[in-house]
Amino acid sequence: MSALTVKRAAPASARTKRIAKAGAAVAIAGALTNALGYLVPVIGARQLSSADLSALATMAGLAAIASVPGLGLQIAIAVHRARNGAASTTRISLITAAVGAGGLLVLTPVLVPLLDLPVLYPLLAALATVPTVYAGRRLGEMQGDQRFLRLAAGMVVLAVGRYGGLVGALLVGAGLTESLIAGAVFAWVIPPALAVLCRSRKPHVADAIRGREILAACSATLAMLVISYADLLLARYLLTPDTSGAYSVGTVLTKGALWAPQVVTVLALPRLAQGSTRALRKALLLVAASGAVLVAASAVAGSFAFRVAGGASYAHLGRYAAVFAATGAVYALVFVLVNDRVAKRAKWAAAPVWVACGALIIVCEFIAPHTLTGVMWSALGAALLALALGAITGRSKR
Fold this sequence. Notes:
The protein is mostly helical. 83% of the residues lie in helices and 0% in strands. It is built from 16 helices and no strands. It is globular and about 55 Å long. It comes from Asanoa iriomotensis. Keywords: Cell membrane, Membrane, Transmembrane, Transmembrane helix.
C-alpha cells in the first residue's frame, strides 16, 4: 500500500470512528430516554388501577402530541443550520412553545368530556409542554452542527426533565394527580440545563429561520405522533377502561419498536438536508433491520414482553406482542421517510400520514369491531398504508 493510500485511509478511518462514537452516544441517550418513558406505564401498571392506568397512558399520549412542536422545532432548526449555518432562533422558539401549550389549553373543554379526564390533567400537561417544546431549540442547534455527543447529553437532560418528576412520584406511591403535578413542575429544569450544555460562540451567519420552515416540520412531526398515538386514544374512546388499560400495555411494545432505531434518523438528518440519497438508503436499511429483530423477538417471547411491560396479569396477551411491535417497526420506517421529505423541503410532506390517520379513525369507528384486536389490527393496517403512500410519493419526487 502506498503512502498516499495510507494518508487517505486515515481520515476516513477517523471519520468512521467519530460516527461510531457519536452513534453510540446518541443510541445510549435514546435508550435512556425510552427507558424513562417506559417506566411511566410500567410503574403505573403496578401502582394504579386499570382505569387510572388508562388515564395515565392517555395523558402520556396527549403530552407527546402537545410536545410535537418541540420535535418539529428541533428538526427545522437542524435542517436550516445544516444547510445555511447558524441563525437566530430565540424568538421563533418562544412562539413555538407558546403555540404548543396554547393548543392544549384551547382543546381542554373538548378533551375533558371526550376522554373522561379531570380538567386539571390537560392544564398540567400544558404547563409541562412549554419547557419541553422550547428544548427543541437547543437540541436542533446541536444536531445541525453535528455536535452529536452534546446532543446525546441534551437528550438525556430532556428525558430526565420530562419523566423524572412523574416517575419519582409514582415510585414513592403518590396518586395519579400528585404524580402529574410533580411531573409538570420538574419539567422546568430543562431550559436552564440545556442552555448551559449548548453554549456556542458561533456567530449568526444565516438569515433567521422562518415560520413556515417550523410549520412544515411541525406539521410532519405532528402527523407522525398523532398516528402513532391514535390507536391508544381510540382504545380509550371505544373500549372499556379495563380493556383500554390492557391495550395501553401493548402500545409500550409499539413505542419501543418505533423509537429504538431513532439514532439512525438523528445522525442522518443533517446529510438528508444536504440531499444525500445514500444516507436515505442506509437509514431505511438500518431501521428495517432493527424492526425485523424486534418483531422476531416479540413473536418468540411475547408473554415475557407483556409481563415486563405491565405485570403478570397481562402475560396472557403475549400472542399479540408481534403485532404491536410490527406496528411500531413500520412507523419507524415512515418516520425516516417523513424526515427526508422535510429535509428536502417537499410540499405536503406529511400528506400520506394524515391520509392513513383518517383511514384509521374511520375503520375503527365504523368498520372494525370495538375490541382490543379490532383496534390493534386497524393500527397495523394504517401503518402499512402510511408506508406505502410515503414510498410512492417519495419515489415520484426523485
